[in-house]
């Protein structure tokens, strides 16, 4: 069910991108100051490339900001594993009887 919904949303997004690209075929000149370089590309390609770069930069920022959380999660998982082992040892000792 969820996979089908995600597939439908992806198909709608692809359709919107295709319609955007077909609706904006005119060329634009892209300049990067201070260089004397002009790149001529379709408007749709320029806008979609800018959106892709922005998306990738956002993904990098999100990944970098999650590193400390992931490190803390690994520490807590190791601690929980040690506690489970200790609890299991204590239960085994109690099951063996007074000692």
Q: Largest sheet, order of strands side by side?
A: 1-2
**Sequence stretches where pLDDT stays below 50 over 5 or more residues:** none
What is the number of beta strands? 2
- Our count of helices gives 2
Biggest sheet: strands, sense, closure?
2 strands, antiparallel
Report the average pLDDT across residues. 92
The general outline is: elongated
Give the N-to-C terminal Cα separation: 56 Å
* Proportion of residues in helical segments: over 70%
Along the chain, the helix and strand elements come as: HEEH
Q: What portion of the residues fall into strands of 2 or more residues?
A: 5-15%
Summarize the structure.
The chain has two helices and two strands. It is mainly α. A two-stranded antiparallel sheet has the order 1-2.
């Amino acid at each position: 069910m969820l996979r089908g919904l995600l597939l439908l949303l992806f198909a709608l997004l692809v359709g919107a991108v295709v319609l955007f690209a077909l609706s904006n075929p005119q060329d634009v000149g892209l300049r990067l100051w201070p260089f004397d370089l002009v790149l001529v590309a379709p408007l749709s390609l320029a806008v979609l490339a800018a959106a892709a770069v922005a998306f990738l930069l956002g993904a990098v920022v999100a990944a970098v900001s999650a590193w400390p959380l992931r490190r803390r999660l690994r520490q807590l998982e190791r601690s929980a594993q040690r506690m489970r082992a200790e609890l299991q040892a204590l239960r085994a000792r109690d099951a063996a009887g007074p000692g």
